[in-house]
Amino acid sequence: MFKKNLILGGVLVLLIISAYIYQGPFQEWQRKKSLPKNFLTKIKTEEINKIEISNQKSTTMLEKINNRWKIGGTKDFFVNDDMAKNLTESLQELTKTEFELVSSNKEKQNSFFSAEQNSNIKLYNDEGLKFEFLIGKMGPDFRSSYITKTDTKETYLAKTSLFVFHQPDWRDKVILKNNQENINKIRLQYNGKKLIVEKQVGVIKSEDDKKEGEESEEKTEVFWKSTEPKNIDIDQDKIKKVLNIMADLQAIAIPEQTFDNTGLEKNSIIIQVTGEGIDQTLMIGDANKDNQYYVKRGDSDNIYLINEDQKNILEEFK
Predict the structure, then answer these.
(1) Fewest CB within a 10 Å sphere: which of 113, 191, 300, 308?
(2) Is residue 182 part of a domain?
(3) Residue 222 to residues 40, 130, 265, 314, Cα–Cα distance (Å)
């Protein structure tokens, strides 16, 4: 009797395991088997060193140089580090994600692609062009994207967001990025005149909250002092605003890359910050018709635009 019960128990356990496998892993395996194959799974993203991205407005070639994505055809424009990371991660995810077939009708493809969200992607490695495909609108859940091979009728829904490929401009708008705490000297050159201010650290004794019999607490005070010319009153609040800009300056736009009519060749306004690991110079030129000012760094020919308020802060701390 015990042996019979043991056998029946074993059969029951096998039935439970079989039911679990059928209801869970087996059905999941069948579901995945029935899905259309991701036609990008064979791409080795680490070998991709060029990406051509085209839309109705422009074509951009991204070239991988020292693990950074450089904008092809430019002297010194790169993709922003955060955007480059997003691009790399999105491409890696695209080669692994599930695809769902949403249409096999060529005439309906236009409903999945729009003027704003329609990018033709070409991936290259050292051997040349490896693959070409189209990325369209975001899916209904805003976490997926429509995709198709070039010149085919099938449209798929890739279970990952590919919105990063729809950038209107890939050029990094960051002009300056410095550690403000490490800046200890600012030089302003304006219409042939020069002003140099340097960080000073003084020690003061605080009488605040001092109890009877205790010594005054010593505190450090950071201030900026003119060293050339000497003995000029410096507005400390204006200096702080200058430091904020010279530590983190981003362009409001990137103009045509020509020095004509920019005023940059005159070097009328030059601001240099130096310090621990920092030596960067900003040159400010004339304004365009929109009252935006042309600027460039001393170590690059890239031309950017900043607004009038930023220009006035940098100019008027003198």
Answers:
(1) 191
(2) yes
(3) 57, 57, 36, 20
241 and 126 share one domain: no
Q: Which two tokens stand for residue 146?
A: 């429509």
> Phi and psi at residue 57, in whole multiples of 5°?
-95, -35
Q: What does pTM read for this prediction?
A: 0.79
Indicate whether 24 belongs to any domain: no
**All residues at 6 or more sequence positions from 74 whose CB lies less than 8 Å from its CB, including other chains:** 171, 257, 302
Number of domains, the chain:
2
- Does 209 score more than 90 pLDDT? no
Arithmetic mean of pLDDT, 63-79: 94
Q: What is the DSSP string of 200-246?
A: EEEEEEE-TTPPTTPPPEEEEEEEEEEEETBS----HHHHHHHHHHH
Largest interatomic CA distance in the chain? 109
Which segments of the chain does DSSP mark as H helices, in order? 2-21, 27-34, 81-94, 236-247, 308-316
CATH at residue 102: 2.60.40
Q: Is residue 265 a contact partner of residue 271, using CB atoms and an 8 Å limit?
A: no
Residues 128 and 199 in one domain: no
Question: Is the residue at 223 inside a domain?
Answer: yes
Instruction: Give residue 312's domain range.
Output: 174-205+218-316
- DSSP label of 25: I
Q: Looking at the structure, tell me whether residues 115 and 179 fall in a common domain.
A: no
The answer to whether the CB of 139 falls within 8 A of the CB of 146 is yes
Q: Tell me, yes or no, whether 4 lies in a domain.
A: no
Looking at residue 30, what is its pLDDT?
Answer: 45
Nearest-CA neighbor of 304 among 282, 273, 275? 282
Q: Which pLDDT value is given to residue 32?
A: 46
